[in-house]
Amino acid sequence: MSTTIFEANGLCKKYGSAHALQDIHMTIRQGEIYGFIGENGAGKTTLMRIIGGLVHPSSGQFSLFGQSGARQVNQARRRVGFLIEMPSLYSHLDAEENLGFYCRMYGIKQRSRIGEVLQAVSLSDTGRKRVSGYSLGMRQRLGLAIALLNRPEFLVLDEPINGLDPTGIMEVRQILEQLAQEQGVAILISSHILSELQLLASRFGFIHRGRFIQEISASELMASAKSKICIQTGSKDTVLQILREQLSLADIAVTESGEITLPSDSIDMEQLMSVLLEHRVRLEGVHLSAPNLEHYYMKLIGGGK
Ligand SMILES: Nc1ncnc2c1ncn2[C@@H]1O[C@H](COP(=O)(O)OP(=O)(O)OP(=O)(O)O)[C@@H](O)[C@H]1O
């Protein structure tokens, strides 16, 4: 079992009488990418702010790198990189100058680190361009570069792929995967883009209205539901008849959008295709759908069918 990096025990945060977080228990281990999922206002940022020392819990405890005393936790925070909301960027300065400011703030003397993090987030070629001319995606990447400056062993990233285009999202995924796999960095990441989190994270924690409702590993997610064959066709009745009567298949369903689904292990895909084509049915699409984080989440919070 790898080292515990962060552990929360009964963490609560109240704003007035409103609970932003209630009785949170969770553990994040070295080298894992932990996807933190919840609706707007669920409490994700609040937990991250607690880790960053920006907010104090109302009750409960947490440890960081095994440290739980206030002074020791503060020391331990030096080993963490944070991207919580957008960091303050000086818009009249370029990327290098902004990073230089944070180096001074963190007491990082090694100037070559600036070039390394700029390269890591693909901003090396921005030259003297001022941050005021940056796109949202470039600002996000500069924010990530700031979080990487201190060579963190734990990264806390609140919606780091917000505003990135598909290439930017893929680049960030590659950076994070590399950090976790090659350097054993633990990563806590929140995002509303669940399809991307599913590609990235090895474990998922679900929070709903301030309560931690479930945790599941990537492999448990894959085992949570059978993958399905999905058929889109203009000859729905004929296809249903073939599947039920000729192929004697059970467990066939029709979705609201008219797609026919059946368990992928009930028939060989090639056999299915050849029978359907033999009957000259009009096929608009046939694909395999794997268990999906979005469906899992919707079901979990009672929003799915
Ligand atoms: N400073 C504050 N004062 C009062 N209430 C707050 C404060 N900060 C957060 N809250 C409340 O705490 C709850 C949790 O907010 P939080 O920002 O942690 O949610 P979130 O899961 O990060 O949401 P989002 O996905 O929108 O970022 C919300 O109801 C929010 O309104």
What does it look like?
With about 300 residues, the chain is α/β, with parallel strands linked by helices. It folds into two domains: about 5-220, 3-Layer(aba) Sandwich (Rossmann fold), CATH 3.40.50; about 230-290, Alpha-Beta Plaits (2-Layer Sandwich), CATH 3.30.70. Helix content is about 35%, strand content about 25%. The chain has helices at about 45-50, 70-75, 95-105, 110-120, 135-150, 165-185, 195-200, 220-225, 235-245, 270-280, 295-300, and strands at about 5-15, 20-30, 35, 60-65, 80-85, 155-160, 185-190, 205-210, 210-215, 230-235, 255, 260-265, 285-290. Strands 5-6-7-3-8-9 form a six-stranded mixed β-sheet, sandwiched between helices. α4 crosses α5 (about 135-150). Bound molecules: adenosine-5'-triphosphate. The site of adenosine-5'-triphosphate (ATP) has 10 residues, from α1.
Quick overview:
By secondary structure, the protein is of the alpha/beta class.
Structural topology:
Elements (H helix, E strand, L loop, with lengths): L3 E12 L2 E12 L3 E5 L6 H9 L6 E6 L5 H7 L3 E4 L11 H12 L5 H9 L15 H13 L5 E5 L7 H18 L2 E5 L3 H7 L2 E6 L2 E7 H7 L3 E6 L2 H11 L6 E2 L5 E4 L5 H10 L4 E7 L3 H8 L5
Parallel strand pairs: 3-7, 3-8, 5-6, 6-7
Antiparallel strand pairs: 1-2, 1-4, 8-9, 10-12, 10-13, 11-12
The structure holds adenosine-5'-triphosphate (ATP).
